[in-house]
Write a structure and sequence with these properties.
The structure is a homodimer. By secondary structure, the first copy, chain A, is of the alpha+beta class. Chain A is built from 12 helices and 23 strands. The two termini of chain A are about 20 Å apart.
């Protein structure tokens, strides 16, 4: 992509609204813009990061045997009355009456809708197990939106649902998802904790939370600095608590929740009547699990853990581009010609590249390249005019190597 | 994908709600399900078709120099008051007040939001032209939803917006988009008409509509049966009208609108104050165009034009899978072994394949394969047990060839 053909409005200073490091960098690097408090536009770079995160999730969900579908945002309130969760969610759930008088809500989650769907089509144990998931936009009337996409009114989630004949099947699917989540967050370069947690409003018993330690995190957990074990924070015991695995003193740690998985049991299938005939011909409620990931807030979580004073440092699989090509004087024909040739060869080799073809000063381009945080920067400047050599800068290591065009391209490929 | 691992609830009879051929086939082939009138779930097969359509659009938009972003569904009503379009859209636009008292609407389109975004970041002629697009979910309080995704309350659109210095730039971008639209709909295997139309509520002057002739279409146009020229239908002149290009008598034709492009001019930039400094330092409103495609209703349009009595017949680029493998008796070890081997080899060759691994009667499997409409069916049955040969059926041509496994796989690759 050419910088001048896309839309990357970088900023020297973060707008006043920014209230965390990731929020500031999201805005400064031109990834997102606020439309109103809690509601954000994904600019082209931000959308590329979102898509990369979604694709990692999709790959790991698909290879775990889950099938993707897409449920609507508009939901009949009627379904929520049946499970009683309209009260649990209260004013957080956006509701309205349409002009035909239908009571509708904007889905903050989809247990009701998917249980109702499966109810209509699964009637025998032979059709189970079944694991379905979606990556979809959710809505919440958030009273105090904060930290950009971390606590927002409109956000993207991955929600998966498992349907089983019995507890044994549920536990099997639960383990598969737990393993998939570890792979997903690992591929995103995240340092995360897995906390055995309360199931709360979701119903059910067993549940695990995936938490990313960050300064601005609003969820407090007790983390073991030695073995990465973590427990829910409970004020009365926090001071004396030792790690149940290695006996090290636990540390009170601020975190952001990025995923949460639940063994639901029959809470939804019972109240919505999603039953199946078991092998002996007996009618049973389907045993369910649900598995959520906060997709859009992962952008923030990754930035919180991957940045320095100059800007973002994207992990490879999440980065909007793999390489940024930075010609320092685009009006110089030799430099511009080399930059376009390098860019073309990267495209031909299937390497996602961004060419900063703006007519801007070297200082602006250097600063913007570091701010954007693309792992590899190819710099074509004075050195090139003198010796024909380019520079390849590794953003994370802040190291440079020098070589001619072929050397540098070979290194990248 | 294995049939038993995904969710394809085919139906022998269409539910009562189905009111057009495509709507019936969408439901019968297990592509979509109604949650409530005008609101649909995309089941796994339907989502694959939707993704294919989106990817065709994405490829052609990207190669036309447009940059993708993602705007929010939640919009401040305030922006609509500035352009006066809150009145134009009236009750069609879903509105609510959140608990902080903000007046919010669910975006039925995004001219206001994108103009406001660009206004904040474009100030000089040097930053123009710019073409931005998104593929996003829109909402309408539709009084009489019909034909499944054709007239729905929640639907997917591609909306693009061009920003230019002058009318000449707008006309250039408009031509590029017109050409891209022709490529997009051509790749989807559609027979479509291009109608020069009124701009109506969108403002501006020049506009073109892309229409697909179908029996159930609610938009009437005058089409030339000879040269594919088309005009908007006007009752008073319809009887006598001749084609302006070839003088043939025009025919009153029912169609569905799948795309609409507009030269907006300065309607939105003027009312929202999106100005730029031109080369002479004078402040000017940005000249805009907008370019819409009804993404989800394209699924219906394609089916309307591509089906027979047995079911859907997908064009190659839109089909949820390229091949369906149909072992006629999955309990037979030889047949099952061969089916899985064929399926594996297709996967290895990068051919998207569905394996019908259900324990169902041959009749059910034949009927479902034809109903699903995947272009190639590999049938492994009695013939295979006798001679070792498989059958390859071409769904559209309704022709079969016979050969051993290697012959058939070679043919597909």
């Amino acid at each position: 992509m050419l910088w001048t053909k896309t839309f990357i409005p970088t900023l020297k200073e973060a707008p006043q609204e920014a209230d965390s490091i990731s929020h500031k960098l999201l805005l400064r690097a031109g990834l997102m813009r606020m439309l109103m408090s809690g509601v954000y536009t994904y600019l082209p770079l931000g959308l590329r990061v979102l898509n990369n995160i979604e694709n990692i999730i999709r790959q790991e969900m698909d290879s775990s045997g889950a099938a993707e579908l897409l449920l609507p945002a508009l939901q009949p309130l009627e379904l929520w009355l049946k499970t009683g969760r309209d009260k649990d969610l209260g004013e957080t759930m956006i509701r309205f009456t349409d002009r035909r008088g239908r009571k509708i809500c904007l889905g903050p989650t989809h247990e009701e809708v998917i249980t109702d769907l499966v109810k209509g089509h699964v009637s025998s144990y032979k059709q189970l197990p079944l694991v379905l998931y979606q990556i979809q936009t959710k809505f919440r009337d958030e009273l105090r939106p904060r930290f950009g996409p971390v606590r927002a009114c409109e956000f993207v989630m991955k929600d998966a649902y498992s349907f089983d004949r019995d507890q044994e099947g549920l536990e099997k699917n639960y383990k598969i998802m737990l393993a998939a989540y570890n792979r997903i967050f690992g591929r995103m370069g995240l340092d995360f904790l897995v906390v055995e947690a309360d199931a709360g409003v979701m119903g059910g018993s067993v549940s695990h939370e995936f938490m990313v330690p960050t300064e601005s995190g609003e969820d407090v957990v007790l983390a073991c600095p030695k073995c990465h074990c973590a427990l829910p924070y409970k004020e009365e015991v926090a001071d004396k608590k030792l790690c149940p695995k290695c006996n090290e003193a636990l540390v009170v740690t601020n975190t952001v929740e990025i995923g949460h998985i639940f063994q639901l049991g029959t809470k939804y299938s019972s109240s919505l009547g999603a039953n199946f005939l078991d092998a002996s011909g007996k009618l049973q409620p389907i045993i369910m699990g649900c598995y959520g990931i906060g997709v859009s807030r992962l952008i923030s979580a990754v930035i919180e853990q991957n940045h320095d004073d100059a800007g973002i440092i994207w992990p490879d699989e999440v980065s909007p581009y793999r390489v940024i090509v930075v010609p320092l004087d685009i009006t110089d024909e030799k430099i511009s010609g080399c930059a376009h040739a390098v860019y073309q060869e990267l495209n031909n080799a299937g390497v996602q590249a961004l060419l900063d073809d703006r007519d801007e000063r070297a200082g602006v381009k250097f600063k913007d390249a570091d701010l954007l945080g693309i792992p590899l920067e190819i710099i074509i400047g004075k050195e090139f005019l003198k010796t024909g050599n380019l520079e390849l800068k590794f953003r994370r290591e802040n190291k440079k190597i020098t070589g001619d065009k072929e050397d540098i391209l070979k290194h990248i490929r």
